[in-house]
């Protein structure tokens, strides 16, 4: 790992550990060295540990002689420093440790008990591959925060991992990080300080992500309230679109802007002849010459027929599937399907014409059916009357008609004929029942009209005992 990479990683860890600690330490960097003032009350051992945690060490007394550094850091009070020419084991056994103090006027090195508490301590750092100051546009002010956790505003150089924020009002104009003596603009790699994003960072593609209800600021790192969240675009066909300046009301898909309004043009996508024109600020489908818009569907086109008879529009793959314009009906003539005007329906139909909504049809009198030419009526045969299973060919109304198809006259005739046959069968059955009953009743009445003195003879098996009983009965009747 290069020194710049190590410093950047260390800086990230230090910044995470410091969090929102206050006050922010001050520092100054020049060349390959940095000095920082930490105002954390500590004894000598605590001060030395504090410097080493951030990758530095206590400032040596030799450096303290340079009062220019102390003035830049605005040192007021007494702070712990070190004597690097003293062996570590000797320093550990000292009862007094060096400090620098401004309490006696000027900056003088003094010795105080090592276990005492001072206002803070001064740290020194060695840096490699530092960055020069960031060139901000328009002379904007730039705030620098080093990975050691101190502010380095006004420094000549900056250690790797330093975050440079170009101040631009409520939101920063930009954010950069120092790496290998160069400034990298945010968003950078998400693994390093979250890519410099205010909220979340996405690696693929490398960009900052905002929570719901917010949008990405034009600086590409901050999040601001979404102006479209309140739905400010209320015009017909309008939608809100975020811009760098805020938001803009634009026309949705299927609408075009004309004179400041969004006009619906979705009907143009469904036009049968693919032509569309605007009439009174409304787009409508138009048809090629010789055609007109169908009344039942404004996106469809139908043939314009100015004569009494016109050729029907038939499917190339199915000549039986033909269409006529509104006000005309289909009629087969000479093997060709034509369209004839409803007003001339009576002339075309063999019996009579039945006018429907948007069309007409020929119908036949009772006992007749419509021929395949849909105009001629032919008699219904006996086989058809007895229900041979043959289905009469119906004549459909004009396709433009929205009304239900009428019941054919021969269908009505068949129904009446069936009812008549059923009634005749019922009558015959009733006649046979009455006749049978009359015969039975007649037999019962014959015996009742005979003479009262007529003897009734019974036939039964004759035995000797029966013969004797019958003789006695005869004698008894003689006596009476």
Automatic annotation (TrEMBL):
Xref: InterPro entries: C-type_lectin_domain (IPR051505), CTDL_fold (IPR016187), EGF (IPR000742), EGF-like_Ca-bd_dom (IPR001881), EGF-type_Asp/Asn_hydroxyl_site (IPR000152), Growth_fac_rcpt_cys_sf (IPR009030), Tme5_EGF-like (IPR015149)
Record's keyword annotation contains Transmembrane: yes
Transmembrane listed as a keyword: yes
GO MF term list: calcium ion binding; carbohydrate binding; transmembrane signaling receptor activity
Ranges that cross the membrane: 414-434
Location within or outside the cell: Membrane
Highest taxon above the source species: Eukaryota
GO cellular component term, pick one: membrane
Classification via Gene3D superfamilies: Laminin
Domain EGF-like: 224-261
Keywords annotated in UniProt: Disulfide bond, EGF-like domain, Lectin, Membrane, Repeat, Signal, Transmembrane, Transmembrane helix
Location, primary (coarse class): membrane
Membrane topology: Single-pass type I membrane protein
Signal sequence residues: 1-21
Subunit structure: Interacts with ITGAL, ITGAM and ITGB2. Interacts with thrombin/F2; this interaction switches the specificity of thrombin from a procoagulant to an anticoagulant and antifibrinolytic protease. Interacts with ANGP1 and ANGP2; these interactions significantly inhibit the generation of activated PC and TAFIa/CPB2 by the thrombin/thrombomodulin complex. Interacts with PF4; this interaction enhances generation of activated protein C. Interacts with HMGB1; this interaction inhibits HMGB1 inflammatory activity.
Function: Endothelial cell receptor that plays a critical role in regulating several physiological processes including hemostasis, coagulation, fibrinolysis, inflammation, and angiogenesis. Acts as a cofactor for thrombin activation of protein C/PROC on the surface of vascular endothelial cells leading to initiation of the activated protein C anticoagulant pathway. Also accelerates the activation of the plasma carboxypeptidase B2/CPB2, which catalyzes removal of C-terminal basic amino acids from its substrates including kinins or anaphylatoxins leading to fibrinolysis inhibition.
Protein name: Thrombomodulin
């Amino acid at each position: 790992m290069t020194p710049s990479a190590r410093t950047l990683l260390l800086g990230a860890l230090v910044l995470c550990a410091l969090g929102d600690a206050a006050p922010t330490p001050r520092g100054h960097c020049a060349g390959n060295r940095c000095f920082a003032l930490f105002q954390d009350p500590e004894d000598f051992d605590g001060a030395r540990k504090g410097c080493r945690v951030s990758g530095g060490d206590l400032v040596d007394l030799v450096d303290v002689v340079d009062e220019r550094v102390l003035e830049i850091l605005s040192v007021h009070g007494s702070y712990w420093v070190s004597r690097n020419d003293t062996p570590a084991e000797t320093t550990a056994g000292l009862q007094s440790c060096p400090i620098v103090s401004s309490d006696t006027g000027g900056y003088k090195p003094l010795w105080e008990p090592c276990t005492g508490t001072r206002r803070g301590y001064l740290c020194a750092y060695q840096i490699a591959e530092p960055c020069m100051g960031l060139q901000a546009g328009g002379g904007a002010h730039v705030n620098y925060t080093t990975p050691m956790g101190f502010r380095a505003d006004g420094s000549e150089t900056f250690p790797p991992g330093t975050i440079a924020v170009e101040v631009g009002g409520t939101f920063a104009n930009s954010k950069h990080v120092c790496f290998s003596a160069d400034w990298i603009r945010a968003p950078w790699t998400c693994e390093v300080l979250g890519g410099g994003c205010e909220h979340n960072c996405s690696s693929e593609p490398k960009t900052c992500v905002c929570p719901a209800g917010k949008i990405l600021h034009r600086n590409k790192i901050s999040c601001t309230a979404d102006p479209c969240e309140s739905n400010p675009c209320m015009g017909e066909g309008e939608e809100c679109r975020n811009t760098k300046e805020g938001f803009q009301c634009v026309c949705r898909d299927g609408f075009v802007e004309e004179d400041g309004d969004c006009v619906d043009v979705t009907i143009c996508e469904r036009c049968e002849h693919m032509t569309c024109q605007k009439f009174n600020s409304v787009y409508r489908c138009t048809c090629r010459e010789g055609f007109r818009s169908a009344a039942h569907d404004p996106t469809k086109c139908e043939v314009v027929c100015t004569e009494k008879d016109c050729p029907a529009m038939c499917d190339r793959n199915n000549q039986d599937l033909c269409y006529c314009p509104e006000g005309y009906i289909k009629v087969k003539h000479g093997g060709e399907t034509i369209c004839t005007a409803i007003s001339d329906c009576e002339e075309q139909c063999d019996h009579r014409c039945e006018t429907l909504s948007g069309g007409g049809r020929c119908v036949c009198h009772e006992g007749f059916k419509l021929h395949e030419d849909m105009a001629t009526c032919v008699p219904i045969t006996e086989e058809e009357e007895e229900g041979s299973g043959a289905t009469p060919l119906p004549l459909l109304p004009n396709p433009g008609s929205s009304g239900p198809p009428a019941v054919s006259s021969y269908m009505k005739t068949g129904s009446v004929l069936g009812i008549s046959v059923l009634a005749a069968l019922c009558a015959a059955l009733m006649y046979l029942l009455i006749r049978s009953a009359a015969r039975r009743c007649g037999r019962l009445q014959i015996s009742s009209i005979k003479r009262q003195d007529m003897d009734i003879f019974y036939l039964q098996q004759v035995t000797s005992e029966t013969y004797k009983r019958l003789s006695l009965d005869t004698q008894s009747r003689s006596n009476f």
